[in-house]
Backbone:
């Protein structure tokens, strides 16, 4: 899980290293904001919504950021 957009945090550095040391058949996936050209959306309401989705997804098996929730 990372709070920064996918292209700005540690994910791109750590992903290959984590895959190398993870046991076989381990599922490894990114949880966080999608790639962006800026560090934030610019709107507090959007940031709060994304933050809640990131935390919820990291702790449960809820829809990923940017995927429809059916609501």
Residues:
């Amino acid at each position: 899980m990372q709070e920064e957009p996918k292209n700005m945090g540690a994910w791109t550095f750590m992903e290959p290293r984590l895959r190398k040391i993870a046991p076989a058949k381990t599922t490894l996936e990114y949880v966080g904001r999608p790639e962006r050209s800026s560090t934030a959306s610019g709107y507090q309401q959007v940031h709060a919504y994304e933050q809640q989705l990131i935390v919820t997804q990291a702790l449960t098996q809820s829809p990923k950021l940017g995927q429809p929730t059916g609501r």
Summary: The radius of gyration is 13 Å. The longest helix spans residues 44-59. The chain has a mean pLDDT of 85.
